[in-house]
Model the fold of this input.
Amino acid sequence: MVWEQRWHPLRREWVIISSHRNERPWQGERVAEAGAGRSLPAYVPDCYLCPGNMRSSRQRNERYSGVFVFDNDHPCVGPTAPGVPDPPAAIYRNSAATGCARVVCYTPRHDLTLAQLPESEVLALLRVLQEQYRDLGARDDVRHVLVFENKGDVVGVSNPHPHCQIYATNFVFKTIELEVEAQAEYLAEHGRTLFHDIVAAEESDGRRLLARCDQALSFVPYFARYPYETYVAPRETRASLADLTQSELGDFAAVLRETLIRLDNLWRMSFPYVMVLHQAPTDNAPHPGFHFHIEIHPPLRKPGLLKYLAGPEIGGGNFLNDTAPEEKAAELQAVSSVHYTEGGEGPA
Done:
């Protein structure tokens, strides 16, 4: 049993770990498990993301055979955003939210997920995302390129076709701002990069490691805010995915794929999550010590049970994790690294 606060050095905030609460009686709502009992076809005629199909914008998708990228038909930011009116009072402020939003389809197959793609296709996807970061980040009106995947019904995904989104914005998202500050200040104070010390601590402890290659690894961090929260990172400090060498990218693809497979194998289901690439801003400012990594935030703490954000998180501003990161990592370590749909096994 773990009952303590743990410091989150990247966000510079405390996380409350109270693993005994995970077994408390639950009489609230249970959610349907993502993909449970549902078999999808390889192609869906009315899917907006399948090859050759018409989208809601009346644009037709290419008959693509690999990764397919297009400008989002319903962007949250864009170059044609209307002008910003004056705020209603002097105490309030506003500014324009401009940039570019894109959709990246991983594969023409409607019935697969990132975890089910062969390693070569995961690597091909990462190469496309490298180019997207370089292309969008070079624009004068873009200060940050946020890449993320929302996966599963319980996180509100409107289309199950495997895809991620890119928001290239004229502002830097708050979490990245916090990480930029924390890592720069840590480097200035200690002469070492913060993420290197996190990786060293995780490898020294060993209990929370999930997958490792020579140049990349994944782990459930000591300070995890969500059950099964997982980080995937290169060992060397790189500011973005685009800065990884080809050999580093190969190891990173292998570790990412194995990590996602382990999550699926845990309950033999397509595991829902929000996955975000934490990359340095593209504002031409120095960002010393910034270490690119992927964060995977699964919303479930048990099959059918969500990790709800309630009083401590929304009202108090600190996350309460009802599980111990060490216990959740052990569960993921115990499953096969071969996807269950291909004969891999879940926990014994």
Remarks:
- The radius of gyration is 20 Å.
